[in-house]
Amino acid sequence: ELGIRIPRPLGHGPSRFIPEKETIQVGKEDATMHTLFAESFATLGRLDNVTLVMVFHPQYLESFLKTQHYLLQMDGPLPLHYRHYIGIMAAARHQCSYLVNLHVNDFLHVGGDPKWLNGLENAPQKLQNLGELNKMLAHRPWLITKEHIEQLLKTEENSWSLAELIHAVVLLTHYHSLASFTFGCGISPEIDCEGGHTFRPPSVSNYCICDITNGYHGVDEIHASPAGNIPVSSTESVCEVEALMEKMKQLQECRDEEEASQEEMATRFEREKRESMFVCSSEDEESAATRDVSRHFEDTSYGYKDFSRHGMHVPTFRVQDYSWEDHGYSLVNRLYPDVGQLLDEKFHIAYNLTYNTMAMHKDVDTSMLRRAIWNYIHCMFGIRYDDYDYGEINQLLDRSFKVYIKTVVCTPEKTTKRMYDSFWRQFEHSEKVHVNLLLVEARMQAELLYALRAITRYMT
After folding, report:
1. Which Gene3D superfamilies match (predicted)?
2. What tens digit of pLDDT does each residue of 290-299 get?
3. Which architecture characterizes domain 30-191 according to CATH?
């Protein structure tokens, strides 16, 4: 009556992929979750949708919140407004307007200069110089060399210190991988954020024609099929789970009987690396960055490219020569105390997290499957574990799952609900979120390994 426009939420629940009734409802959480919600609220000033989806795995969420809080708010080499601006730069590389908008608000809140938000060219030269590293880390980390590090550390009045650079690298990798989580789980913007609300008047049938053109067909459609997934005969899906468990059992038996030679293991790695290049999303259309987000980074045409394309050969990165445990961890901890410890804990929790269940089955050892997912992601980045048989990956990860993994890790902005629905159709949503935690951490560790190895080479 007063002519005031009242915002209505555009989506239902924290995720476009997971039906609202299957997420953890605020007010119905247990004591542990309640504490985490309170922590998240105290830290971020809001209970964001990332937290509401991650809380499926409270142990991981606790570690994630602790690390993010330390990176953004505790003592460290970089001033607060730089930290949020770097978060904006990193999220923008994947056109993740959800994270960009959150950090634009935080950047202004801690006294950042609004002019910087008009485009990267308005930020200080020191931050502009980080653009090249941001670009390569996000899309082709295997190209980073000690020369790139030297340029950042030696540019006279705009030079970075080693400690500042470590802080920046951890922030960049944190937000690249968080963009993967945001797209991989279909995180919806909160009602007060851009894209989170509409002012359209409610129509008689509860949604109007503009909803339909935007792909939203009302709440009923989302809940029509079980678990919000593509309708599929339950026997077919159950067979899928049984078949996967049977393969795990057979692989374990083969492992116990014979071990492949080092040469054979190396060949299998190269084969898997080559094959991973031919996994591409069926929805492989170019997604153009909106001007709103793309102004925060340079060279908008630069994106993910498989490393062996165009006759370019990238030497395999052998974990035996440079690993997180033996090299990266101590370098980070030395130059930015406590962060190495926090990251290490987060990697371990994601990698070892298990409830010993698979879909409807209990008391299942899932370590083989988790390792296959982690090592497949590292394989896509050219990283090899000498003691792993890469032949297991093809046995355990089917094509639709590989398409999902590669899209979320390499070009997250192209992830669709169809991709999310088409893998592991009989599994719980919490298990699919668990997969995303593995993708986030394996991706972050891969980026860090390339950057830290280049820094180590520069230092020596």
Report:
1. AhpD-like
2. 446 656 556 6
3. Up-down Bundle (1.20)
